[in-house]
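Issue 218. Parser rejects a valid record. Input:
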Amino acid sequence: MTVYIEDVLLENFLVTYLVLFMVYALLGNKSSNFRHILASILGAFVALLYPLININSALLILLKCGVGYVICLVASNENLKKQILFYILFLLITAIYGGVNLMISYSIYGNFDTQKLPTLVIVAVLSIVTYLLKQCQMVIYKKKNILNLVYEVVIKNNGIVVKTRAYLDTGNVLTDPSNNRPVALMSFKVFQKLCKDYRVSNFLTQSTNGLKNGHYIKVKTATGVNSMLVFDVDFLEIKNSKQNICIQNPVFALSKVKITGFNCDVILNANYLYGVKNV
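Output the parser choked on:
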C-alpha cells in the first residue's frame, strides 16, 4: 500500500487540531490560534518519524507520551498544575479518538488496521465525535451552572417553619414600589403552609387580612399588567455553600403560575445574594 507523506501530514495535523480543540473546550480555556496551529503542525511532523524509529513497543509508547506532553506545552501556556490537567485530558481524548478509529476499521475491514482508512473518513468521523463531545460538555456545564443556582431555604412565619428548595433567578429584580424592597416568589403550596389563617375566599375580594404588610402591586407581564399579592414573612434563611444569608421580614409575592423545574417552590430575588444580606 502506497502512503503519501502529504496525506499523513494532513491527517495528523487535523487529528491533533481536533484533540486540542476538545481539550480547550473541556477546560473552558480560550485557545491561542497561533499555539493551537503550531502544536498541530508539530504533531503532524512527529507522526512522520514514528515508522522510522526502530525501538520496542513499550519505549515507543513512552516516546509518544513524551511528545504528547511537548505538544501540550506548545499548545497551552499555563502553570504546572493546569498543564498536567491539560496533558491528562489530551491523552484521554487521544485514546477516545484512537478507539473510534479502531472501531471504524473493524466495522469496515474486519481488522484493526487503521492505516487502510482514508484520511477524509478519519477526519469526518472524528469531527462528528468532536461535535458530539462538545454538545455533551455544554449540557453538563449548563446543568452544573443551573444547579449552582438552587439553594435550600428556611422560611418562618407566625411560628410555622417551612424548609424547601429555591431557585435564584438572576433576572428577578422585582421590587415592591411602596417601599422599594426586593420581592421573592412563593408557590401556593408553601403559601398555604405559612399562612393557614388566610382564606381562599379572600382572593376574590383582594382582602389582605391576616397577612403582615399584605397588599397588591401592579406587575407588567407578557400578558399585560396584573395584580400580585405581596406580604412579609418573619424570617428567611438562604443556605449558601459559602455562608448562610439571613433576612428579617423579607417580602414575598404569591406566584400565580406554578413554579416548575428543579423541585423548587421559591424563586429568589437576585438582590438577596447580590447586594442585600439583611433587609
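Fixed in the parser; the record now loads. The helical segments are 5-27, 33-49, 57-75, 80-109, 119-147, 188-194, 202-205, 270-273.
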